[in-house]
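Batch manifest line 478
LIGAND: glycyl-adenosine-5'-phosphate
JOB: complex structure
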Amino acid sequence: MGGWVWEERELLKLMGWGSKTKEGSVTEPAKTKVDMEKLVSLCRRRGFIFPSSEIYGGLSSCWDYGPLGVELKRNIKDAWWRAMVQQRDDMVGLDSSILMHPQVWQASGHVEGFSDPLVECKGCHLRWRSDELEGDRCPECGGELTEPKLFNLMFKTFIGAVEDEASVVYLRPETAQGMFVNFENILNTTRKRLPFGIAQTGKSFRNEVTTGNFIFRSREFEQMEIEYFVKPGTDKQWFDYWVEERLNWYVSLGIKRENLKLRPHAKEELAHYARACSDVNYLFPMGWAELEGIANRGDFDLVQHAASSGKGLSYYDEEAKEHIVPYIIEPSAGVDRTFLALLCDAYDEDEAEGEKRVLLHLHPDLAPIKAAVLPLSRKEPLASFAKEIYADLRQQWMVGYDDAQSIGRRYRRQDEIGTPFCVTADFESLEDKQVTIRERDNLRQIRVPIDSLKATLRAKLGGEDLFVLPEGGKVWKE
Ligand code: GAP
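JOB STATUS: finished
ARTIFACT:
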């Protein structure tokens, strides 16, 4: 553990801490409870996130999600899928491949225009995005900079055994194109009528010039994107609808409303395909920055792909008895940025049971571990009794088991990873067949019969009041 200080420093370097460029639309550093260093340290210490290939010194801007991180990430995507696909009848899902026909990226404009202006310092040879620099000198050494050159952000690779121009393919920089090129397949196989949407989650890759702020901007990340097809003329109304809908989704996951802000794009900053765009911004520790972009893409994508592929990508409007090209509203969110925003928002420090504690107020749907079973002692028959409860609860949820150190220390460990409930079994439990449920946020405890433990947890995880006690249960401690 002597290497911890060194590791911390290396970690901060890997996350691009201290980057001297402006971070896109980041403004006004936040006065939040958590700073990024604390969060990085917690993520690393508790197994949420590790630097990629860490034993080799890490790979800049690539991250590995550890045992708790992978659960949180999966829960975010599940929550999104439940709300955006499962609970709607105007949405279908898709999982398109990462590698696509190279013509896709010609038609989409990515080969031509998906570039950042890059400058290099003639002194220290560090590279910067010229549009993010303040001033015209190198932020590191003050040296002279080269003229900006456009640098395409797509990762290039080759398909098959021959590495020539004809076999070039790209790692997708967004999942969106998979949905545009499958428009006709989905129309034909699902018989959806306008308005309807296609949703998908998946990895995207961008060879970003400037990265940093931990997982905020990395080179490999995950997106949750919707392409919502509407009749032209109704696009403004659907754009407003989706902006509201998406903002509310973050609030429904427990993100504080005051930490979210809409930022409509000015005309001159709109992407080449967009008629309108609004970002959902979050107050990250480094300032307000984009969590999600909602764009009105008009008919740009279907028109482009129809022209490039020679396929008529249109929709037969039964009412008007004519073929039309739908407009597209695109709410495009980042899984990793949502992860970071949720952690920032959930992070808290307070005092519990006479001790300082760090806790994550994660929504129960998102918490990596829903409940932890804690036997008061490792001795038999209590250990077997508690393990039986553990085995039973695991059939339904991700559940932890911890019998090391004092009960206080064990509570602290669960609080720090956001486990909403601890289930404690003591020697009395062997007699009265009851266990104690302790709630993370308000520290209240109730004692419930084991027979109603699962039903009680189900209700509590579903958001019911802790004091709706099952028959035979009682308030234990407040
Ligand atoms: N299809 C539209 C599109 O991809 P975008 O604004 O470039 O739009 C959408 O990306 C979202 O994807 C962003 O709001 C952000 O959450 C996430 N994202 C984009 N680039 C990212 C990166 N380098 N690292 C992490 N997340 C990123």
